[in-house]
Design a protein that fits this description.
Blueprint: E1 7-10, H1 28-35, E2 40-43, H2 45-48, E3 60-62, H3 65-72, E4 77-79, E5 86-90, H4 96-113, E6 117-122, E7 129-133, E8 139-143, H5 146-158, E9 164-170, H6 178-184, H7 193-207, E10 211-216, H8 240-248, E11 252-254, H9 256-259, E12 273-277, H10 284-289, E13 295-299
Parallel strand pairs: 1-2, 1-12, 2-3, 5-6, 5-9, 9-10, 12-13
Antiparallel strand pairs: 4-11, 7-8
């Protein structure tokens, strides 16, 4: 009798300054190591995205954070796919030259990697992203025109038959900010990550479709003191390639009724272990999976701005 696949969920929450996985793709080495020890690795874009850098892991499932929460709650199963048709949304606020850089990056992934892309769409009004910081030090943000984002996604899904959505929103350039400088030097919190999560959550919640985001920013001036952990974001004009690669094979979200017809779909009760930073055990995914048979592995060496220890899961 064949034993069931050993399934691990790796979570490094976005925008909380994790010392491992809180920067530009520095969680990827951890994901690669864990993927070699299990049959299925389920993780999220913050772990696998490295701007223009990425690493294909055949047994890894790229699952957006809101979708991961709902998977852990048992609302959705994950249906592995061979390839998704990926739609691209560009914020109307992106300047023409910067927009062209992103379109060329998309063309490059299509021509070089064979990714299946639909036509792109520009939002009918600027999204107007605002970056904020919580009292704990975690980053978050808002968008002033969420309806414009949702209209663009609906058009790509229904008219272009997109099966996954990549979003590029124009983020504020704040070259002189202390938070950005600390991040570039390998300290502090990614100032963009929290707002990015808001954007992808909105589309996944409304359309139950894989989604990830890449910010559009003007290139920063060269800095000889740049941290290697932040360097992936400095080597080009766009962070889009890793997002398109991840979404091209991101699992579809299926309901229990659909899952009964799909014998290879994956459900929360099949998870064997959850790996999470030792001070970030308060997230919805971890709390939900702590109620299952899954073993929670809290990594004390991975420090964050949070102060939620495994003890919070007791009882």
């Amino acid at each position: 009798m064949t034993s069931p696949p050993y399934t691990v969920v790796l979570i490094i929450p976005t925008g909380i300054g994790a010392s491992i996985g809180g920067y530009a793709g520095d969680g990827l080495p951890v994901a690669r190591a864990i993927a070699q020890t299990c049959d299925i690795l389920i993780t999220h874009p913050n772990v696998l995205n490295g701007a223009q850098l990425y690493w294909p892991l055949p047994n890894a499932l790229y699952v957006e954070g809101y979708a991961l929460d709902k998977f852990a709650q048992g609302w959705y199963g994950l249906q592995p796919v061979h390839q998704n048709r990926v739609g691209l949304i560009l914020d109307q606020a992106i300047e023409p030259e910067l927009q062209l850089r992103h379109l060329q990056a998309a063309d490059g992934t299509r021509a070089t990697l064979g990714i299946n892309l639909t036509d792109y769409i520009v939002t009918d009004s600027p999204l107007e992203v605002q970056l904020l910081e919580s009292e704990s030090g975690a980053s978050w943000g808002t968008i002033a025109n969420p309806d414009s984002l949702l209209r663009a996604a609906e058009t790509l899904i229904h008219k272009a038959k997109a099966e996954a959505i990549a979003v590029v929103a124009r983020f504020p350039d704040d070259e002189g900010s202390t938070a950005l400088q600390e991040y570039r030097y390998g300290q502090g919190v990614d100032p963009l990550a929290g707002a990015e999560a808001v954007i992808s959550h909105l589309i996944v919640k409304n359309f139950q479709i894989p989604c990830a985001h890449a910010p559009a920013l003007l290139p920063l001036p060269l800095d000889p003191n740049l941290s290697p952990r932040s360097a992936a974001e400095e080597i080009g004009y766009t962070f889009l390639p890793c997002v398109l690669v991840g979404l091209s094979r991101a699992p579809q979200l299926v309901t229990l009724k659909e899952g009964l017809r799909l014998p290879d779909s994956i459900w929360a009760q099949q998870v064997d272990a959850v790996v999470v930073p030792g001070t970030a055990c308060g997230g919805s995914t971890v709390i939900s999976l702590s109620q299952t048979r899954a073993q929670i592995i809290a990594v004390t060496e991975n420090k964050t701005q949070m102060q939620v220890s495994p003890k919070s899961l007791d009882g």
